[in-house]
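Supplementary Methods, section 5.1.

A reviewer requested that the exact input to the structure prediction be made available. We therefore reproduce it here, unchanged from the version used in the analyses.
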Amino acid sequence: MLVYPLAFGATAAAGKEALDKATFEAYIKHMLLVTPGVQLTVHDPKPSPVPGLKQVDVTFTFQGTTEDRTFYVSDDGKWILEASVHNINQNPFQSDLDKIHTAGAPSLGTSHAPIQMVIFSDFECPNCKQFDEEIRANLLKTFPTQVQLYFKDSPLVSIHPWAKQAAEAGRCIFHQNPAAFWDYHDWIYSVQDQITPDNFAGKVVEFAKSKGLDDTQVAHCLQSDAMASEVDQEIAEAHALGINATPTIFINGRRMVGNIPWATVQSVINAELEQQKTASTAKKDEKCCEVSLPTVTK
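The structure derived from this sequence is encoded token-by-token as follows.
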């Protein structure tokens, strides 16, 4: 947690309740060394979970790309906190878990497994290719019943020209045959360096035909942008989670960003399984020291 006194050029007037947005924006630009061309939108303060603090969300925009960051400001407008806020009575990752929706997403593994893993990925992203290939090679082999994996689309459209097309194609195939989605998933990464915006549709139709899918239906699905709204919903979900890099992974809500080595992913899953085992044992032992009056049974 970082705490900053808001004293850039001017301080909030004594007794002033509302945040001075101009002062706040200038301070944030100075603190973060915001370069020219990046636009800041300071949103209105709103109540935070912590008494005495207001939540202030800031949107940074540059060449069509946006990033949201959250700050907390004291009620007198003089102090800024850059921190993660957790309720000790809740899961430490509850805020993110509330924003992740897996209904209707392609999945692998055991339904309702103790480890729920969600990957936000981009089919044009080289790091995603490497990470997903490692996951596919190792996850179910190492954890055959302990993990359920969900795939979510987060195409970085500002830098990857055919990524959203690829996400839509994945949806077209998934709706026709859910199991075939994973064939498409593996194929599109394997030919990633051969794809261009111009040849994309033709290669996907060829792939569909090779897998015994209705290639005419897939072609129509792509041409009509039938899956655009579904992918837009996925993008909106990623935005709500503050995802601006792929892959971004959630393991039981624990966020991990980037091409994480398999050994690290494996250790996190093992730690989560051990934590659940410990919590379960502790719950069973809750009455170990309970004092009660004897009863007579008839």
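The radius of gyration is 24 Å. These observations are discussed further in the main text.
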